[in-house]
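sry for the spam today, last one i promise. struct tokens for design, 114 residues
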């Protein structure tokens, strides 16, 4: 994918964004019942995804920005939640919400492209 982007837009500034950790140790959604172990595993997957994505993006000559630090304190079930828990429609579950996009991802992109 990165090669296609580079081939089709060789002068573009490409910012590749990582994915935040979903949990801060609490699952308040009545329909999910994630254990502490499961939440830690999902957060570890976010860390692994960030590592692999960073490696691939940098190898392609793109800028990688890690979302994990900025989203700390804004996980599912936090008082200032930037990530949806179990949602309706279900496709929006466990993805950044509008606040997460505006306060989490947009500053990362602006830090590169101004």
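last one done:
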């Amino acid at each position: 994918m990165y090669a296609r982007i580079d081939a089709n837009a060789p002068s573009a500034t490409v910012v590749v964004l990582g994915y935040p950790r979903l949990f801060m140790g609490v699952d308040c959604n009545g329909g999910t019942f994630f254990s502490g172990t499961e939440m830690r595993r999902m957060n570890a997957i976010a860390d692994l995804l960030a590592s692999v994505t960073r490696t691939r993006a940098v190898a392609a000559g793109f800028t990688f920005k890690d979302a994990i630090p900025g989203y700390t304190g804004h996980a599912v079930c936090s008082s200032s939640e930037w990530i949806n828990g179990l949602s309706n429609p279900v496709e929006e579950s466990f993805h950044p919400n509008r606040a997460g996009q505006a306060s989490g991802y947009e500053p990362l992109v602006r830090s590169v492209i101004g």
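DSSP finds four helices and two strands in the chain. ok im logging off now
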